[in-house]
Specification:
Blueprint: E1 4-12, E2 18-27, E3 32-36, H1 43-50, E4 58-63, E5 66-67, H2 72-78, E6 79-82, H3 94-104, H4 111-120, H5 136-148, E7 154-158, H6 166-181, E8 185-189, H7 193-199, E9 202-207, E10 210-216, H8 217-224, E11 226-233, E12 250-252, E13 257-263, H9 270-279, E14 284-291, H10 294-303
Length: 306
């Protein structure tokens, strides 16, 4: 059974704005799923519908097989949400805030679990500190602790590392991996493409309310990515030799580079290319390859729709 099952989901606001259009999505149990998209694409609306905060205009959402609209109490108890905004009780202590969140979902007191949670998030020494005295990064950790307090099976992270430093971001990545290893399903939205590339098992791309692609991360990079082989010439070439016209080579850097672009999924015989260059007495001093990053693929996907 999937952790999240979404079918025909749509959201039109009273203003007439359509935030989501006929979204179908299955999220597997125990995976990290990254939802990417530009600002206003519908990422937060989608999360808020699954979490029961926003009512859909059409379609259905199941969480662990339970309908999020008809079985709100059940689904809310198995879902944790870390929103973008740092909305915490400023005058409460860290311990009181996390404990209170656990009680909201009917969970019995479990000081040992809460203590462990604070330790995992490097909050143990801040357990008695008031939220208002914490840094932005520490407040973000508290938000994650609150979302995990009732031991949810599914965790939504909406821009979890926005505005935090690199060290804290990597700490959070490590925590996400530990949670996944414990069987928690994690869905995150992020502006940091390297975060999705580092963490996600699968990637979904949403643009203007439409889910335009869902793919395993490695498959996506192989299927949509490009490889580029660049040869540094010993002497500039005035043009690509006509004997090599069938290869689709291009000149770069004022003729000092010979560039060969090809699909990432395709293998090429570099030795054969080198032999053909040698036959034409074309010498090169260096060779290097580059493969498209997830960011390049994402930008290309979205730009094609403009």
């Amino acid at each position: 059974m999937n952790a999240i099952s979404i079918g025909g989901l749509g959201k039109r606001y009273a203003s007439g704005h359509v935030a989501l259009r006929d979204v179908d999505l299955q999220i597997r149990k125990g995976e990290i799923f990254a939802l990417l998209g530009p600002n206003g694409a519908g990422k937060t609306t989608l999360i808020n519908i699954v979490c029961g905060i926003v009512t859909p205009s059409a379609g259905h959402v199941l969480a662990n097989g339970h309908d999020v609209t008809r079985e709100y109490r059940t689904t809310r108890s198995i879902i944790g949400l870390v929103p973008q905004e740092l909305a915490t009780d400023s005058f409460e202590s860290v311990w009181a805030t996390v404990n209170h969140s656990r009680g909201l979902f009917g969970r019995p007191p479990n000081p040992r679990y809460v203590e462990s949670l604070l330790s995992q998030l490097s909050l143990a020494d801040k357990r008695n500190a008031r939220i208002m005295t914490l840094s932005g990064g520490m407040k973000r950790r508290v938000m994650i602790a609150k979302a995990l307090a009732h031991e949810p099976d599914i965790l939504f992270l909406d821009e979890p590392t926005a505005g935090v430093d690199v060290e804290l971001r990597r700490d959070m990545w490590a925590l996400m991996r530990r949670l996944r290893d414990q069987g928690v399903t994690i869905i995150l939205t992020t502006h940091y493409i390297e975060e999705a590339e580092e963490m996600a098992d699968r990637i979904g791309v949403i643009d203007r309310g439409t889910l335009i692609l869902v793919e395993d991360k490695r498959t996506l990079i192989e299927k949509l990515g490009k490889k580029r082989l660049t040869l540094q010439m010993r002497a500039p070439l005035p043009s690509v030799p006509r004997e090599l016209a069938d290869l689709g080579l291009e000149l770069g850097a004022d003729g000092t580079e010979l560039v060969f672009s090809y699909e990432a999924s395709r293998s090429i015989d570099i030795s054969a290319l080198v032999r053909r260059l040698a036959d034409l007495s074309i010498e090169f001093s260096d060779m290097h390859t580059h493969q498209s990053s997830l960011e390049e693929i994402f930008v290309n996907l979205v730009s094609k729709r403009t």
